[in-house]
Design brief:
Blueprint (H helix, E strand, L loop, with lengths): L5 H11 L6 E8 L2 E9 L4 H11 L2 H6 E5 L3 E7 L6 E2 H8 L3 H6 L4 E7 L2 E6 L5
Antiparallel strand pairs: 1-2, 2-4, 3-4, 5-7, 6-7
């Protein structure tokens, strides 16, 4: 599967990264949007450096790369609203629906859990 979305890249990184404790995720609010600050460190592992090289050749790098620090430290700023995600409450306002409808039909949506009580969603794309 080729990785096209930020969510697919995040899943790939989390599944392949050696030393998961070298991955840090922080959600912040920037310009009224929920943004993920993803910090990853290669910790000198060749396998992690190979993943970075793969990321550097992707649209993910062009769109979300924020900073590189000496020693193999990389930071990405990911604005999921650019991929159509919004808070459940915002989604309901825009689409004139109730939160209960969303939570009773979770299989119709892609979900990102940003905290215990906050989730970003977007309607699932029809399968081709």
């Amino acid at each position: 599967m080729s990785k096209q979305t930020a969510v697919e890249w995040l899943s790939y990184i989390k599944n392949k990264w050696s030393h998961s404790d070298a991955i840090k995720e922080d959600y912040i609010i920037e310009d009224s949007k929920h943004v993920l600050i993803l910090s990853i460190s290669t910790v000198g592992m060749t396998c992690n450096e190979k993943i970075i090289k793969k990321i550097q050749k992707s649209f993910f790098w062009l769109k979300y790369w924020y900073q590189t620090k000496r020693g193999g430290h990389y930071t990405f700023k990911i604005d999921f609203s650019s991929e159509g995600y919004m808070l459940v409450s915002e989604y309901c306002k825009v689409n004139n629906c109730y939160n209960q409808l969303i939570y009773k039909s979770p299989h119709f949506y892609d979900w990102i859990h940003i905290s215990k009580n906050k989730k970003l969603i977007r309607k699932k794309e029809p399968k081709k």
